[in-house]
Amino acid sequence: MLYLQNKNKDITAQAFIQQAVTPTIISQIRATTTAKEAWSILNDAYRGTDKVVSIKLQTLCKEFDNLSMKKSEIIQVFFNRVTNIVNSIKILGDSIEDKKIVQQVLRSLLPKFDHIVAVIEESKDLSTLSAMELMGSLQVHEEIKILLFN
Questions:
Q1: Nearest to residue 110, comparing CAs of 149, 142, 147, 63?
Q2: How far apart are CA 99 and CA 128, in angstroms?
């Protein structure tokens, strides 16, 4: 009885997988006999093998370490870039602590934000400050500056 239940679950999982992929991938997973085999093929196709994942992670970590805000960028656009890199790293199975993200963002801002960075460093506990809280603080300061000087 348990065998039949597991077999039905496996067949259902395979059906869901086949419905969710492109025809190219379906041809690769059609010959599999279990959902686990199909999932393994999907994992290699979309995520990559361990070696590919390792190389992608190295590239993303280097990109994160070399982050710098562009002169024409506003805080929201810069944070979108940061978030995309961090999310890509997390998708590949690695993680970055908020503390490291906060430190990197503060180092990566344009010199025009130096006074804001000083205020944030003095008024907030950077070891507990989340990346989202930092973004909010920086956006508020940026908007105030825009209102005052426009």
A1: 142
A2: 7
